[in-house]
């Protein structure tokens, strides 16, 4: 239990960042030191600063990650093996366990050196004891066989007013920032015990003076930080020998933010005191108004970096620079005089002339310096072959109008060896034609972010920047804030030179042929080595039509994010090496089929947050992206997509990542069968309930080939019902959703039922559905079978009920489809078609036919003139429709004849279809109504009928009457 308490106490040392100079020290050494706000000090062990194994996380010191990930934890009693990663996690997680506002008296157990080393003599030590958790056994030892051990005593923010003396003498880092140390606390010899110190942090205390002898014995000290105290750079400091003990070791000194009144005439740069530090390489110091760096700075031959920056880093208000300000700093390579209130009118052009070894110059945030003065300042460096980087961000007041880059501004740049120019936030609107020719041929990167540069004639000179690789023309990333003081009336607008903004007549942009100002088909030049162009948030509003670039370019990366390109018409020609194109948040509504036709080398396309829903829905043949055969990653998320056609990505055989998230897709209709390398599909935040079998089969195939493919379907309404069981089972089997199921849901087939989050995956849901759906299958099949049977019975009943109607219309349709017609149905070929039973053939042949022919009637009887080979039903139908009347001879034999009944029904349907009285019934026998049957009786009642007379004298009148009835229409 006690060991656990000690471990917890040791974890209390993580905390918020110390100060701005913690960041500075981090940049210089690779380590950042922090501590908990109300804790006392602890000794913590990490690798040496230069160790490649050390790893730093934001705002907190992180325990060393060794190559051997197992650690041995030892104290007075041996502890178990302890996992390094777990320890690191805990150090980040536990911010503070002490009571807020409670201070503990500093107490340490006796140092037991024999208990903290392993058999090989290697050990890391963490001590974190307060009087609340104090114990004699409060030692935590973490060992590694293959690491160089550095012991750090972190006493930051511990409310100390004295330097602790109980620490082990072997510590190499002592961190005392954010305490209450004062000049009395730092008496001579106070650090005598700690002769192995390499780093000492005394920043953010109450120190006003540094007594001679305070650093006595610190012959190994390499870095000293006294930032943010009140140590005056006056004559007393300059005459002192306080830094003498550090003569051979100190290389890094931070002593700025100590003199807020930089205009105090009694302040001087302490050249004598600092001259004792003969190995000093880096110096942070406050900038004094009107003061020069004295001649003794000339003895600091290793001083290569000087930072006299103001604002958040220190105090600086130089206001002026003179030709002799840096006269004795000829060894400088890195000079930072940012935020120093330089006035353009008080800066002499030869101020940087002595700095003939300078490689980096930072003039950032000198708002009233001005670009013209920057150009003049380059006079002293006009032939410099060492200066590589120039930082001139924000050297004009915000909202200044008419800021131009003129040829004369760059007149001293031509012969320099500059590689990087950073000129962000300078309100630049235009570059004079010809000005770019003055830039050095060595220039590789130009950053003009947050300016207002418009396209102009200067672009004709872009091809002459032969070494330029990176061009940044980004706009405002953040909302612009109005200044506290608006530019005063003394700021003058510079007029452009004559001809500014126009193309000259001497040559086309690419091949120097004739060129017209009104020409629209010219080719735009690009620097031949240019690889990266960013024009993010640049307020461009264009419909991109056909654009042709000179082909001698190597442009690889273009970022046009957050502009306004409503339509991409194209084609864009000449960018044959372009691999990455970012056009997210550009309000794009349409892309033509030819826009990407000449951008065939594209591998990464980002179209996030546009308006391409209708455009891609209308791309039925997949022509928009069909030339992008090398595409590896495409992002069309947040585009209001509601449907994609099957061939939307038909040519993307090399695609690795497909992002369609945050859209309105309800189905996955597009094909991925051609994607043999696909690794990730992002579909999260859509309306997709399932994936189709084709998509699932291809993904399973990829998995079988060892492709580690995953799908993100978070925040989709995935249906958890029997109909979707196959998909859910596939998800469980393939694990394509990964292991984190946060924001995965089940949508149940119950009205208004809330979706249930599946944080533990779909395994349980699949098991439940498999059981319940299996029981329902039998019930479903039974119900389905019964329903089908009922439907079949109903259909059969309807067919039987309307069998004659169906038969008639069948023959009618068949007749109409026939290629030939024997007669026009309006000109009947016969007056009567006689339907009779074969048993009554004698009456038909001996009496009926002769009597009808005697009276001029054309008679067709059943079987007579029926075409051979034609089905009898077709012959009957033809006979009925070619005859004006159909005479049904009713006898007992007829009532038993199938074909007579068939002829009767065909005649009946002909009567209904044509609206004519077609049927005539002849009763040869007296047959009771009960014997006729319901169908024949119904036809008889609605049609003409006549009885055959029994007396011979009545037969003449009978035949006349029958003939008349058959002639009538």
UniProtKB/TrEMBL annotation:
Localization of this protein: Membrane
Lipid bilayer topology: Single-pass membrane protein
GO cellular component: plasma membrane
Keywords: Glycoprotein, Leucine-rich repeat, Membrane, Receptor, Repeat, Signal, Transmembrane, Transmembrane helix
Alphabetical list of InterPro entries matching this protein: Leu-rich_rpt (IPR001611), Leu-rich_rpt_typical-subtyp (IPR003591), LRR_dom_sf (IPR032675), TIR_dom (IPR000157), Toll_tir_struct_dom_sf (IPR035897)
Signal peptide from the UniProt entry: 1-20
Transmembrane segments: 777-800
Entry's Gene Ontology BP terms: signal transduction
Gene3D superfamilies xref list: Ribonuclease Inhibitor, Toll/interleukin-1 receptor homology (TIR) domain
Top-level taxonomic group: Eukaryota
Domain TIR: 828-966
Pfam family, one: LRR_8
Gene Ontology MF terms in the entry: signaling receptor activity
Family: Belongs to the Toll-like receptor family.
Protein name: Cytochrome P450 2U1
Organism: Biomphalaria pfeifferi (Bloodfluke planorb)
């Amino acid at each position: 239990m006690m060991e656990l308490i000690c471990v917890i106490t040791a974890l209390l040392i993580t905390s918020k960042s110390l100060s701005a100079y913690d960041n500075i020290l981090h940049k210089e050494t690779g380590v950042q030191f922090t501590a908990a706000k109300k804790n006392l000090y602890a000794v913590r062990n990490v690798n040496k600063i230069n160790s490649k194994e050390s790893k730093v996380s934001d705002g907190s010191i992180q325990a060393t990650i060794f190559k051997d990930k197992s650690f041995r934890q030892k104290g007075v009693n041996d502890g178990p093996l302890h996992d390094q990663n777990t320890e690191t996690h805990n150090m980040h997680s536990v911010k503070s366990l002490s009571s807020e506002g409670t201070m503990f008296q500093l107490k340490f157990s006796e140092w037991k050196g024999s208990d903290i080393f392993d058999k090989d003599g290697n050990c890391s030590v963490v001590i974190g004891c307060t009087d609340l958790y104090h114990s004699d056994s409060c030692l935590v030892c973490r060992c590694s066989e293959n690491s160089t051990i550095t012991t750090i005593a972190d006493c930051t923010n511990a409310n100390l007013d004295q330097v602790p003396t109980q620490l082990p003498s072997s510590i190499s880092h002592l961190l005392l920032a954010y305490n209450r140390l004062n000049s009395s606390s730092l008496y001579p010899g106070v650090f005598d015990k700690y002769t192995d110190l390499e780093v000492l942090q005394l920043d953010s205390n109450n120190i006003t003076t540094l007594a001679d002898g305070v650093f006595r014995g610190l012959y190994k000290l390499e870095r000293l930080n006294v930032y943010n105290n009140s140590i005056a750079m006056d004559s007393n400091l300059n005459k002192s020998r306080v830094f003498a003990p550090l003569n051979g070791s100190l290389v890094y000194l931070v002593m700025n933010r100590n003199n807020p009144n930089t205009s105090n005439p009694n302040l001087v740069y302490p050249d004598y005191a600092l001259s004792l530090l003969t190995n000093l390489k880096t110096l942070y110091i406050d900038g004094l108004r009107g003061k020069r760096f004295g001649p003794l700075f000339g003895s600091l031959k290793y001083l290569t970096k000087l930072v006299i920056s103001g604002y958040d880093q220190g105090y600086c208000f130089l206001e002026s620079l003179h030709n002799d300000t840096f006269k004795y700093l000829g060894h400088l390579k890195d000079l930072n005089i940012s935020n120093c209130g330089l006035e353009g009118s008080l800066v002499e052009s030869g101020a940087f002339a002595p700095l003939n070894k300078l490689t980096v110059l930072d003039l950032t945030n000198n708002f009233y310096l001005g670009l013209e003065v920057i150009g003049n300042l380059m006079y002293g460096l006009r032939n410099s072959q060492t200066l590589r980087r120039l930082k001139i961000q924000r050297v004009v007041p915000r909202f200044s109008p008419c800021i131009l880059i003129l040829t004369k501004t760059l007149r001293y740049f031509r012969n320099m060896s500059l590689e990087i120019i950073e000129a962000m936030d300078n309100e630049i609107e235009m570059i004079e034609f010809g000005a770019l020719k003055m830039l050095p041929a060595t220039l590789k990167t130009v950053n003009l972010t947050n300016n207002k540069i418009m396209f102009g004639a200067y672009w004709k000179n872009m091809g002459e920047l032969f070494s330029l690789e990176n061009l940044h023309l980004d706009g405002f990333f953040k909302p612009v804030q109005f200044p506290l003081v608006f530019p005063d009336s003394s700021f003058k607008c510079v007029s452009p030179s004559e001809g500014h903004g126009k193309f000259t007549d001497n040559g086309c942009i690419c091949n120097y042929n004739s060129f017209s100002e009104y020409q629209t088909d010219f080719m735009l030049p690009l620097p031949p080595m240019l690889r990266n162009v960013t024009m993010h948030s640049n307020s461009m509003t264009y419909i991109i039509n056909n654009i042709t670039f000179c082909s001698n370019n190597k442009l690889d990366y273009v970022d046009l994010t957050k502009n306004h390109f409503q339509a991409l018409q194209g084609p864009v020609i000449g960018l044959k090496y372009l691999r990455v194109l970012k056009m997210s948040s550009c309000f794009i509504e349409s892309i033509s089929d030819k826009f990407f036709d000449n951008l065939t080398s594209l591998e990464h396309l980002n179209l996030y947050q546009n308006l391409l829903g209708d455009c891609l829905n209308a791309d039925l043949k997949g022509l928009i992206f069909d030339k992008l055969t090398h595409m590896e990653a495409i992002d069309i998320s947040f585009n209001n997509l509601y449907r994609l056609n099957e061939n939307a990505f038909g040519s993307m055989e090399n695609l690795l990542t497909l992002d369609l998230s945050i859209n309105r897709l309800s189905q996955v209709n597009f094909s991925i069968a051609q994607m043999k390398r696909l690794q990730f599909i992002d579909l999260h935040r859509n309306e997709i309930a399932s994936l189709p079998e084709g998509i699932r089969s291809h993904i399973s195939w990829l998995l079988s080939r060892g492709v580690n493919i995953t799908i993100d379907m978070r925040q989709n309404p995935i249906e958890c019902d029997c109909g979707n069981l196959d998909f859910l089972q596939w998800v469980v089997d393939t694990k394509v959703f990964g292991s984190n199921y946060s924001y995965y849901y089940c949508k149940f087939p119950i009205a208004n039922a809330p979706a249930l989050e599946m944080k533990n995956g779909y395994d349980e849901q699949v098991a439940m559905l498999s059981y319940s759906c299996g029981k329902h299958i039998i019930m479903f099949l039974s119900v389905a079978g019964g329903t089908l049977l009922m439907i079949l019975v109903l259909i059969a009943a309807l067919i039987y009920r309307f069998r004659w109607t169906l038969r008639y219309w069948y023959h009618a349709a068949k007749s109409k489809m026939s290629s030939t017609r024997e007669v026009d149905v309006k000109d009947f070929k016969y007056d009567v078609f006689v339907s009779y039973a074969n048993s009554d053939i004698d009456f038909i042949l001996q009496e009926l036919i002769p009597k009808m022919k005697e009276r001029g009637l054309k008679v067709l009887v059943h079987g007579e003139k029926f075409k051979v080979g034609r089905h009898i039903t077709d012959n009957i139908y033809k006979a009925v429709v070619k005859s004006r009347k159909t005479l049904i001879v009713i006898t007992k034999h007829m009532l038993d004849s199938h074909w007579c009944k068939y002829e009767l029904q065909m005649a009946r349907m002909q009567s209904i279809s044509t609206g004519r009285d077609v049927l005539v019934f002849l009763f040869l026998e007296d047959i009771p109504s009960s014997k006729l049957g319901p169908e024949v009786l119904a036809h008889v009642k609605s049609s003409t009928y006549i009885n055959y007379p029994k007396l011979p004298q009545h037969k003449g009148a009978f035949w006349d009457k029958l003939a008349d009835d058959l002639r009538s229409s």
